[in-house]
Specification:
4-stranded antiparallel sheet, 3-stranded antiparallel sheet, elongated, 2 domains, alpha+beta, Outer Surface Protein A, domain 3, 21% helix
């Protein structure tokens, strides 16, 4: 991880960094993120470059060096560009809807699933028509946006976990770039 830790981070699009009491604050046009530096790790800012330094060459410090650099890079990217996850819902009668601070999922259970949307995220649910054979069906798309990469990924994983895609018909919730291999089933073996 030390090769990753040695690479400087470029501060682009007006990202501003301040360090006080071992807490680093990164501000950008989309928001502001804070993170507490780990023991033995220091940060220096010069000429729109952010460099992460470590106290010694112990195994633990080398690991924390790369970790800190990767997290700070994600923070800079988050406050300048933001992060986004797109989920697709496949299945007849499956849908999603944003109701205030809640995401309502209708995914084949006897009840609807309500997930509370964290305040830091923007979630949009829309249904688009798609033609499949003779009948036309609607596919629901959920877009999750935010500046915190961990929070965006965590909420997307919670939504997907409500109904993961199954292998026989492909029904369920999947990521935009996720490929599900469809199995033949019993009738396909004869």
């Amino acid at each position: 991880m030390s090769r990753i830790g040695r690479a400087p981070i470029k501060l682009v699009n007006g990202a501003q960094v301040s360090v006080s009491d071992n807490i680093i604050t990164i501000k950008g046009n989309l928001g502001e993120l804070h993170w507490q530096l780990l023991p033995g790790i220091s940060v220096e800012v010069s000429d729109n470059l952010l460099k992460v330094n470590r106290a010694d060459d112990s195994k633990n410090q080398r690991a924390l060096h790369g970790l800190t650099r990767a997290l700070l890079q994600n923070m800079v990217t988050g406050v300048t560009e933001g992060f986004q996850k797109i989920l697709h819902i496949y299945g007849t009668g499956y849908s999603s809807e944003v109701i205030g601070p809640w995401l309502k999922l209708t995914v084949g259970y006897s009840h609807d699933i309500l997930l509370q949307i964290p305040e830091e995220l923007q979630v949009k649910a829309e249904a688009i028509p798609r033609s499949k054979g003779i009948r036309s069906d609607f596919q629901s798309i959920i877009t999750i946006k935010g500046i915190d990469k961990q929070l965006v990924g965590q909420f997307a994983a919670e939504v997907r976990n409500c109904r993961p895609p199954e292998n026989y018909k492909g029904k369920g919730i999947r990521y935009n770039d996720e490929h599900v291999i469809i199995k033949a089933g019993k009738a396909g073996t004869k």
